[in-house]
Specification:
Radius of gyration of chain A: 23 Å
Largest sheet of chain A: 10 strands, mixed
Number of domains of chain A: 2
Distance between the termini of chain A: 61 Å
Helix content of chain B: 10-25%
Helix content of chain A: 10-25%
Strand content of chain B: 35-45%
Structural class of chain B: alpha+beta
Radius of gyration of chain B: 24 Å
Strand content of chain A: 35-45%
Number of domains of chain B: 2
Number of strands of chain A: 23
Oligomer: heterodimer
Chain lengths: 442, 477
């Protein structure tokens, strides 16, 4: 069966089961991955999958179905169970899906390379490993992913559309020794925009410079965060801006619309309409045509990210950010500043340059209190210059304070996506005037 | 299904694979989520398909498809073999697999209440009662519960694994998890967050066993007390009791993960990271002699339960730390061959489309023989950290932090005033070496362990009894 046939069958079944508001999405994916470590390939992976997602509203409740079993009988059974379970709840909400025969831009009908070329994937891995080693490192690990997805959507509201998109994602981690590591990543929609040489060299250079780190001293320092770190932190801003998180009380941006939430040197947008960006799409998961929107403009929170449900709850309109369950961004774009990385370093008397971070957890998601481990190259900055590698620090702070303390924004931006960053994010480095760093007592 | 799996094995061997493995896996289940007293959604899923894993000229290939037609499976096999073959030129360490004994077996755990047969109306009412219990208990302390997310994930995982060396294992294991996120707000004293989970390899009957109304009453009471009365933790060195929930997480993060042999070999270096342990660390002292850490997939009813791993290898109880010394690692066949040993059955995959890799199952600190009263009685001044709200650890698993949620001062052997956000920020060896006594109150918690690329969040138990740390500093250096 074709994608549209499967989607339409599911929609008909949902209607028959009593839902007048339903969205049916079928996604067909061809996905390839090469993982490498210790300078060689460890595994090659291949996946072909067709998956159905159904979102149906019944008696004021939401039911979702995800299935890879696409026989008509299976779809009937599963839809019946999902809708049957959802309609038993005594409380009902006023829910609906968008209505309209929407038009979608042709430029987003096919995003990126139309075919994945196996040999080119191998070439990229070879170049990335070679580039990292050429910086003087001894070991290189990483992942290259290539994914082509076709997506068809139809709704009871009259929306219908399809598009295809390709994502290439390269992540490289280089080791100069077990404690001297560097990591960099890039996401693109075509081979021509993926620069394995740059990614490999960047990871290798950080690793080489991180050799023989000194034990750091905990305390409050100026902090220069590289693009990998900023992408991770910006993802948390977007998560907190999701109408679903705001509605659930799990956001540090609750009640802050129209208010200053970051330094005025920081601006952030969600742009699903850039055909060269890996997360772009012509419509969201309710069939609404997507559009470019400012989330934070020079420090001021301009909007939350909404689907029709969260928008209705907050008395506003959908921002066409519906995900399968909750609103989410497509491509996060941080506005560039005018400082080079050298300029940013020169602005710091006593600080730390953080090239990567991971394992961010909240002590209090509503306040934004969190900590995250700094990994890979970490450098002390003294009197406007890199003073050498250090180790062992953890960033322990508050999101609002951290973003409020941004002093300067870099001009060179990179498209980042890796293990810790789901949404393709275009970001420069940022300089924060004071951040709190802790470390173990024993 | 067996015919299809056999066909995949035979075809891949014909195409030149020296090793072949085929797995059918079906995960079906439901999630329901109560958000601030209202049913937010019900989500059903059926994820079913076939996975092929091959070794071709020393290169490992993996392929999956949800299309179970013979033509599609044939195509998946051809892709696995051809992609593996073409990457051979970039393979530096040809894949070898340990020699294992394989058998044919069936492991079936029958749930008493299948999720499909749950009375969802009654279930929603039960969760609303639990939600009201939190509000009421916290409210008595003047605390408003600004966020209550109560979630159940229930389902059954069915697998059928065959390989070219004689393995033929079918299994069917139900799993149910209850997880929650709570945020309380006190008008003068700010907010606090709590997250935790329980999980078992049982059907919906697990929900009845857990008495979630009583559990939420306890959480609401703790939230109220911590926010209303909590004081800042002392800054000087003191004795600390860590409750079983914290101990379970410590064992998972700073013993289980660094014991994964694929991390030690560098295979996960680009994502989850490596390990402070190396291949020759067996026997290395990392903690006091009262520390025994175990990983055991075979505990009946456990959330991480299985008998055969996803390479068809029979699993068993394995000591990771014995009397404070490194006693063993977690292996699949590939890492076992590198170490010149046998696999101990630690190879797991989340869904049909995921490669099996080295994973934990149920990781815990072995119980001692001391009661809580005995652990606390000679502490003049200390802090009891019963559970936690925030944690993280570096990618070599040495620099870790756990921020307590429910915690109390200990003075002259008695529990006293609640303490707010005590933070244990210590190295792995620093923490384990400070332990001088282990309680007998072993308890387990459900968790979803993240690793792999793509990420595979698999079900595990973390567990332990209360332990006593002497003369440590809260709040890091």
């Amino acid at each position: 069966m074709g994608l549209s046939q499967i989607a339409e069958i599911a929609l008909r079944i949902a209607k028959r089961e009593g839902s007048n508001d339903a969205v049916s999405i079928v996604r067909r994916t061809h996905w390839r991955m090469i993982r490498f470590s210790n300078n060689g390939v460890t595994v090659s992976k291949n996946k072909r999958e067709t998956e159905l997602y159904l979102y149906a509203i019944i008696r004021g409740k939401k039911a979702f179905l995800t299935t890879t079993d696409l026989s008509k009988k299976s779809i009937e059974d599963a839809t019946g169970k999902a809708l049957g379970a959802a309609k038993v709840s005594s409380d009902r909400e006023s829910l609906s899906i968008p209505k309209g025969h929407f038009k979608y831009p042709r430029k987003l009908k096919s995003i990126g390379d139309a075919k994945l070329n196996e040999q080119k994937l191998l070439d990229i891995v070879e170049v990335a490993i070679g580039a990292a080693l050429s910086e003087g490192t001894s070991r290189v690990a990483g992942t290259l992913t290539a994914e082509r997805t076709e997506k068809f959507l139809c709704t009871t509201g009259g929306a219908e559309g399809d598009y295809a998109s390709t994502i290439y994602n390269l992540s490289v981690r280089a080791f100069a020794d077990s404690e001297a590591t560097g990591q960099f990543a890039q996401v693109a929609t075509s081979f021509s925009n993926l620069d394995a040489e740059v990614v490999g060299r960047q990871a290798g250079q950080i690793a080489k410079d991180a050799k023989n780190p000194r034990r750091a001293e905990p305390g409050k320092y100026s902090a220069l965060f590289g693009p990998m770190v900023v992408a991770n932190l910006v993802g948390e801003i977007a998560r907190s801006a999701s109408g679903s998180n705001v509605d659930a009380g799990l956001s540090f941006l609750i009640g802050k619309l129209g208010q200053s939430v970051t330094s005025c040197s920081f601006s952030l947008e969600d742009n699903p309409t850039d055909e060269k960006a890996a997360g772009s799409a012509p419509f969201d998961d309710e069939g609404m045509p997507t559009y470019r929107k400012t989330i934070i403009e020079r420090g001021i929170l301009k909007t939350y990210l909404h689907n029709s449900n969260t928008a209705s709850k907050m008395g506003t309109k959908s921002t066409a950010n519906a995900g399968l369950v909750r609103p989410r961004p497509f491509n996060l774009v941080v506005s560039a500043g005018d400082a080079s990385i050298e300029d940013l370093i020169s602005m710091v008397d006593n600080g730390v340059y953080v090239t990567n971070s991971w394992y961010l957890r909240y002590q209090d998601q509503r306040k934004g209190d969190f900590s995250t481990i700094l990994r890979d190259g970490l450098f002390k900055i003294e009197n406007g210059q890199i003073a050498g590698p250090i180790k062992g620090l953890r960033l322990s702070g508050n999101m609002l304070k951290l973003f409020g303390d941004i002093e300067a924004v870099g001009r060179e931006r990179h498209w980042i996506r890796w293990w810790e960053v789901d949404t393709p994010t275009l970001t420069p480095a940022i300089l924060v005037k004071e951040a709190n760093f802790t470390m173990p007592s024993l | 299904m067996e015919d299809l799996l056999r066909m995949a094995i035979e075809l891949s061997q014909e195409l030149g694979a020296s090793y072949s493995e085929a797995r059918f896996q079906s995960d079906s289940g439901a999630t329901f989520l109560l958000k601030n007293s209202s049913l937010e959604f019900i989500d059903f899923h059926v994820l079913a398909g076939i996975a092929i894993r091959v070794v071709v000229d020393g290169s490992l290939g993996f392929s999956s498809s949800n299309n179970l037609s013979r033509a599609s499976v044939r195509s998946a096999v051809e892709s696995a073999v051809s992609f593996a073959r073409s990457t051979t030129k970039l393979v530096k360490q040809p894949v070898l697999l340990s020699n294992e004994e394989f058998s044919e077996d069936v492991v079936e755990i029958r749930p008493r209440i299948r999720f499909e047969n749950v009375e969802f109306g009654a279930a929603v009412e039960l969760f609303k009662e639990a939600d009201s219990a939190i509000i009421e208990k916290a409210g008595k302390w003047g605390v408003k519960m600004a966020s209550r997310i109560l979630r159940v994930d229930a389902g059954t995982c069915t697998k059928f694994i065959v390989n070219s060396e004689g393995a033929k294992v079918r299994s069917s294991i139900p799993r149910t998890m209850f997880s929650y996120t709570l945020i309380g707000v006190h008008p003068q004293k700010g907010s606090a967050m709590r997250q935790s989970a329980l999980g078992e390899s049982r059907g919906w009957e697990a929900i009845e066993r857990w008495d979630i109304v009583a559990l939420m009453e306890e959480e609401g009471e703790a939230m109220g007390a911590v926010l209303e009365k909590g004081i800042s933790p002392p800054k000087e060195n003191l004795d600390v009791l860590l409750g079983s929930e914290v101990v379970g997480l410590v064992c998972h993060e700073s013993t289980g993960h660094p014991s994964e042999a694929d991390r030690i070999l560098g295979r996960e270096a680009a994502q989850a990271g490596e390990s402070y342990l190396s291949a020759d660390s067996i026997g290395m002292e990392i903690g006091s002699t009262v520390i025994d850490v175990i990983d055991d997939p075979t505990i009946p009813g456990s959330y991480g339960f299985y008998i055969y791993d996803d390479e068809g290898v029979k699993a068993g109880k394995r000591y990771l730390i014995k009397e404070g010394k490194v006693a063993g690692f977690l292996h699949n066949r590939e890492t076992a061959a590198s170490f010149g040993t046998k696999s101990n059955g630690a190879s797991r995959s989340l869904y049909y489309d995921k490669e099996p890799i080295v994973r934990m199952a149920n990781t815990y600190l072995e119980a001692g023989d001391m009661s809580f009263e005995e652990l606390i009685e000679d502490i003049e001044k200390g802090v009891y950290v019963r559970n936690f709200t925030e944690w993280n650890i570096d990618d070599r698993r040495f620099n870790q932090r756990y921020t307590g949620f429910e915690a109390y001062m200990i003075e002259n052997g008695e529990l006293g005033t609640p303490v707010r956000n005590p933070t244990i920020e210590m190295t792995t060896t620093g923490l384990y070496r400070a332990v001088d006594a282990v309680g007998k109150d072993l308890r387990f918690y459900g968790a979803t362990c993240g690793k792999g690329d793509p990420m595979q969040g698999i079900p595990v138990w973390t567990g332990g009894p209360t332990i006593r740390l002497r003369n440590v500093k809260l709040g890091g250096a």
